[in-house]
Design brief:
Number of domains: 1
Number of helices: 0
Largest sheet: 2 strands, antiparallel
Structural class: mainly beta
Keywords: Metal-binding, Zinc, Zinc-finger
Shape: elongated
Helix content: under 10%
GO molecular function: DNA-binding transcription factor activity; transcription cis-regulatory region binding; zinc ion binding
Radius of gyration: 24 Å
Pfam family, one: ZF-HD_dimer
GO cellular component, one term: nucleus
Protein name: ZF-HD dimerization-type domain-containing protein
Oligomer: single chain
Length: 85
């Protein structure tokens, strides 16, 4: 009995989308309180690659103060084996 080798092709791709949500900067920390500004989502002040890309146009805070949300999607591709007779 002969054994046949069958080639199976699989590949996967990981796609990550990063979004910055509401601002969490505590504006009353210096007086011992807690108050956020209510900014709901980061919007860059300027285009990518500039210093304004990291400053929010709505609240003026740095992007690091906004809640980071990462969505990860894994896409798998499977190619069934081809049988040769």
């Amino acid at each position: 009995m002969k054994k046949r080798q069958v080639a199976v092709k699989t590949s996967s791709t990981v796609i990550r989308n990063v979004r910055y949500g509401e601002c969490q900067k505590n504006h009353a920390a210096n007086i011992g309180g807690y108050a956020v500004d209510g900014c709901r989502e980061f919007m860059a002040s300027a285009g990518e690659g500039t210093s304004g890309a990291l400053t929010c146009a709505a609240c003026g805070c740095h992007r690091n103060f906004h809640r980071r949300e990462v969505q990860t999607e894994v896409v798998c591709e499977y190619s069934p084996p081809h049988h040769q007779n």
